[in-house]
Design brief:
CATH superfamily of the largest domain: Nucleotidyltransferases  domain 2
Order of helices and strands: HHHEEHHHHHHH
CATH architecture of the largest domain: Up-down Bundle
Strand content: under 5%
Radius of gyration: 22 Å
Structural class: mainly alpha
Largest sheet: 2 strands, antiparallel
Number of domains: 2
Strand order of the largest sheet: 1-2
Shape: elongated
CATH topology of the largest domain: Four Helix Bundle (Hemerythrin (Met), subunit A)
CATH class of the largest domain: Mainly Alpha
Distance between the termini: 36 Å
Length: 258
């Protein structure tokens, strides 16, 4: 689904409702199941109750909320946010724990090709489900697709200009292509305007390295737990910035590279 058409999901509405109710706990309120579910059902309108209950259970299963308010009230209908849940709600409109909001945030920053989007959406599904190793591989695949897309733009431009294409850029290995692309852009960075050169110098290598490292840790494990939820979360947060930088570089290559 293209990000421009992403609508609020059941999970997103539940998280928003929890955040609103959480803000009231400082004035003596409590987080209670029936209040959140009933308010969410009204906002969602046409969704069936079983679908809402399924997503409600998923919030518990994936560790964002847990039962109980305190030791005196440890059971339903009271519940509380876990540390992971609180982190997710800090930026609930664009946190990976809220895929619909995350994809809208991405759409506001950049466009990505269909292949990258298919990997990214599956990576979000994996992250939400707590499948962090799988999520790392999927996000890594999305990032590689963005890099290969930018490589294709460079190759097409060089061919149109009648200039030779660096041989490593046509290699089948993504790392070789990525390194060749970085070297090519480094060779032209003095021609970039400051608002493009500065982000490229500061972030390109860091973006590609962080996401690739987490992906490789998952794909070539050397320990029982090679990937942490925090590392996958970081990769997902970085991805929109990488996509935006790639978009801006692609526009420069298309219009200004001579």
């Amino acid at each position: 689904m293209p990000p421009q058409s992403v609508k609020p999901s059941i999970r997103e509405v539940l998280l928003q409702e929890i955040k609103e109710q959480e803000a009231q706990t400082g004035t003596g309120g409590t987080l209670q199941q029936s209040t959140v579910l009933n308010n969410a059902a009204r906002k969602l309108g046409g969704y069936d109750h079983e679908a809402i209950l399924t997503q409600w259970s998923e919030l518990f299963r994936t560790g964002l909320i847990a039962w109980g308010m305190n030791l005196s009230n440890p059971n339903p209908p009271f519940f509380h946010l876990t540390d992971r849940g609180r982190r997710a709600l800090e930026n609930a409109t664009r946190d990976p724990s809220n895929p619909a909001g995350y994809l809208r945030h991405l759409a506001s920053m950049a466009t990505v090709n269909d292949i990258a989007m298919s990997y990214l959406t599956e990576g979000l599904d994996c992250y939400v489900a707590g499948l962090f190793k799988a999520g790392a591989v999927m996000v890594g695949g999305a990032a590689e697709s963005v890099i290969l897309d930018l490589r294709d733009t460079v190759v097409q431009k060089l061919q149109a200009l009648g200039k030779p294409v660096p041989k490593p850029m046509e290699d089948w290995r993504t790392k070789t292509v990525s390194d060749a692309l970085r070297s090519f852009l480094e060779g032209h960075k003095t021609r970039l305007k400051h608002d493009l050169r500065d982000p490229f110098e500061a972030y390109w290598s860091a973006f590609a390295l962080q996401i690739r490292t987490v992906r490789n840790d998952a794909g070539h494990p050397t320990s029982v737990a090679p990937v942490t939820p925090e590392s996958v979360h970081a990769s997902l947060l970085i991805f929109p910035e990488l996509a935006r930088l790639a978009n801006n570089l692609s526009r420069w290559i298309t219009t200004d590279l001579t």
